[in-house]
Amino acid sequence: MKILAVDTTSGACSVALYDQGQVKERFVRAERDHTRRLLPMVEQVLGESGYSLGQLDSLAVSQGPGSFTGLRIAISCVQGLAFSADLPVVPVSSLAALALGAVRENPDWATRQMPVLAALDARMQEVYWGLYDVTKPGHALLPDQVSSPEQVIASLESAGYVTAGESGVDQGKAALLAAGPGWGYPELAELNPRELLLDAGIHAQDIAVLAADLWQQGKQVSADTLQPAYLRNEVTWKKRERIRPSK
């Protein structure tokens, strides 16, 4: 199985090739110029592998949540490649990739019997977040959502992952592993997780690994049906209205 994965969800640009269980990645931290960088990186990864686009089984991309602009760039790129080579696409949660990357960078996490809470800064005092099984980071224990830090804690309490009053440094550490810049909000950090990887990022190599499993499950889609998972659709709609006001 050969899958090419692309990501521009956050402040980085990455492309990776999954080839029969082996993954090679090009990763560049860049807040801007994703559009200019992405296709040359795709060509480099394919060139180094010796494969053409048509020899792949599928493409994969971070579906979101994340930066609206970043998601559109990656998804548009993958749609163009998919149409040109008649390939299916596997959409992958950016939060699942974030959780998997944190476990990959911290192998000892896999021995901990506690979930990974991946969180990205959604601005406006909210975070994109998802709760994932540490032994199977692609398996969501709670669905990806956007909430205030206080609402995150309330949701965890309601689902039984955190007991009321467990947050706060004086109350000990919550039985959670934490990954992602969304944990920079002090209100969320009050959960005091057992371990925290604040600078965890989203990598195409993790998207590729997750996509391989999803591909085996038959969860690929056609390029024309690929849609970003913004989670904050009302904000997206307002932005579209400002750009293209109704008549």
Automatic annotation (TrEMBL):
<dbReference type="GO" id="GO:0005829">
    <property type="term" value="C:cytosol"/>
</dbReference>
<feature type="domain" description="Gcp-like">
    <location>
        <begin position="30"/>
        <end position="153"/>
    </location>
</feature>
<dbReference type="Pfam" id="PF00814">
    <property type="entry name" value="TsaD"/>
</dbReference>
<keyword id="KW-0819">tRNA processing</keyword>
<dbReference type="InterPro" id="IPR000905">
    <property type="entry name" value="Gcp-like_dom"/>
</dbReference>
<dbReference type="InterPro" id="IPR043129">
    <property type="entry name" value="ATPase_NBD"/>
</dbReference>
<comment type="similarity">
    <text>Belongs to the KAE1 / TsaD family. TsaB subfamily.</text>
</comment>
<dbReference type="GO" id="GO:0002949">
    <property type="term" value="P:tRNA threonylcarbamoyladenosine modification"/>
</dbReference>
<dbReference type="InterPro" id="IPR022496">
    <property type="entry name" value="T6A_TsaB"/>
</dbReference>
<keyword id="KW-0963">Cytoplasm</keyword>
<protein>
    <recommendedName>
        <fullName>tRNA threonylcarbamoyladenosine biosynthesis protein TsaB</fullName>
    </recommendedName>
</protein>
<dbReference type="GO" id="GO:0016740">
    <property type="term" value="F:transferase activity"/>
</dbReference>
